[in-house]
Amino acid sequence: MRLLRMSNNTLANEVLLSVENTLRSSPFDFQGARIITGQDEGAYGWITINYLLNNFVQDSSVLNLLPNFRKVETSGALDLGGASTQITFVSNEDIESQDNSLHFRLYGKNYNVYTHSFLCYGKDQALRQQLVKNLPSTENSTIFDPCFNSGYRRNSSISELYSSPCVSEYSTLDGPINFEIKGTGNYHLCKANVQSIFNRTHCPYSQCSFNGVFQPVLQGKFGAFSAFYFVMDFLKLTQEKATLDEVKERIQQHCSRPWDEVKTEFPKIKVKYLSEYCFSGAYIITLLELGYGFNADNWKDISFLGKISGSDAGWTLGYMLNLTNMIPAELPPSPPLSHGVYVGLMVFFSIFLVFIMLTCWLGHRKPRCLQKGII
Ligand SMILES: Nc1ccn([C@@H]2O[C@H](COP(=O)(O)OP(=O)(O)OP(=O)(O)O)[C@@H](O)[C@H]2O)c(=O)n1
Questions:
Q1: Residue of 169, 258, 220, 239 lying closest to 55 (CA atoms)
Q2: Is residue 220 classed exposed, middle or buried when 0-12, 13-18 and 19+ CB atoms within 10 A define those classes?
Q3: Which of 35, 230, 235 to mutate to test the pocket of ligand 1 (most atoms within 8 A of CB)?
Q4: For residue 5, what pLDDT is reported?
Q5: CA nearest 59: which of 44, 50, 69?
Q6: Does ligand 1 lie within 6 Å of residue 83's CB atom?
Q7: Does residue 193's CB lie within 6 angstroms of at least one atom of ligand 1?
Q8: Atom of ligand 1 at shortest distance to CA of 231?
Q9: What is the whole-number distance in angstroms between the Cα of residue 231 and the centre of ligand 1?
Q10: Catalytic positions
């Protein structure tokens, strides 16, 4: 919707109006439809996964005294959509760019959060950028693309290719109107093509991810969801903790398989998704490694998450939690003593009272001989 608004604002408004009309006639308490910002998308994704992972349940002074008390850290959020991708995590460093800085107070604790949304770096738009950047200058009607399995063919057109604002600046009237994309299935060539859409030559801050965007040093664990999960799940890389090299090896193997073989093995998967897993694998590795700076050491900090406790990982739950005030800024008032400590103190004081009464009684009691009048 953010892309559509850029290329055709009237059409974007028409879509919103249509959504509003439909939802207004539903039994829900509909309060309006709007296009959220990339920053919101990052923030709400971060809230969702940390809420579902129970990371906001923080220490109270009593809990702190417990021997097995775990100081809960939040998890960073990595979201890959079709049009944009978001990275969000708590950072102890100075966030040099205001646009990337968020402050939350949740359950009585402050969080300084870094977030950035890269529009045009979702999986579908990145594929488009990669194709455009590597279009041969000749007027060939066939494009050989290493990011598709060999034997794969797809028809496209110049107008379709350049229809997105992510690539319209590269638009050229040269070349054929219609062309055919033919896969050659080569992971290393594909990765080289994908790298060409990441600009790491300029950085106006002390450190950047790519395209001149500030990013502090990566901190803590990360949950990667949406297309990060769909792709890694297809490649069977979400359960086992594979090393970065093993992950690359698996993607390389997949890219080198002939398209016919892939299609026969997975007849139930949509052709659009299936045909793009080679590109998607190479893109995810490049985005995480070259873009965000993950490496062989901190790769283990990334968990690929589809559902958490039965709920989808994504920005929508976080948006709803925020809207309905489900995560209060302050901790709910808790009793000064826990139940266990209260019961323990009651038992102790009861025994103490009985002991005092017994001592008094023994101290004031007359000896038996006095009672009988014998000195
Ligand atoms: N089983 C699936 C489902 C989706 N996808 C891909 O995952 C990406 C993200 O899909 P979706 O969650 O529908 O994202 P969008 O809503 O399009 O993302 P955005 O937030 O960027 O608009 C898309 O490229 C889609 O083709 C996939 O590879 N396999």
A1: 220
A2: middle
A3: 230
A4: 97
A5: 69
A6: yes
A7: no
A8: 28
A9: 10
A10: 41
Angle at 183 between CA 181 and CA 186, to 5 degrees: 140
Distance 146 CA to ligand 1 centre (A): 22
CA dist 222 and 46 (Å) reads 10
Ligand 1 atom closest to residue 276's alpha carbon, by position in its atom list: 28
Name beta bridge partners: 116.
87
Residue numbers belonging to the annotated binding site: 82-86
DSSP assignment of 168-180: GGG--S-S-SEEE
Q: Whose CA is nearest to atom 26 of ligand 1?
A: 273
Nearest to 42 by CA among 222, 202, 289, 308: 222
Ligand 1 mean position, distance from CA 214 (Å)? 26
DSSP assignment string, 174-241: -S-SEEEEEE---HHHHHHHHHTT---S--SSS-BSSTT-B-PPP-S-EEEEEHHHHHHHHTT-SSS-
**Which residues does the chain have with pLDDT short of 50?**
62, 374-375
Predicted local distance difference test score (pLDDT) of residue 66: 52
What's the confidence (pLDDT) of residue 191?
98
According to CATH, what is the number of the domain 37-334?
A: 3.30.420.150
Q: How far is CA 52 from CA 248, 310, 330, in A?
A: 30, 9, 19
Cα dihedral sign, 212-46-285-275? negative
pLDDT digits (tens, 9 = 90+) for 152-203: 999 999 889 999 999 988 877 666 788 899 999 999 999 999 999 999 999 9
H-assigned helices in the chain:
2-7, 9-24, 38-52, 61-65, 123-133, 158-161, 187-195, 227-234, 244-255, 259-265, 271-275, 277-286, 315-323, 339-364, 368-371
CA distance 24 to 31: 9
Name the closest-CA residue to atom 2, ligand 1.
230
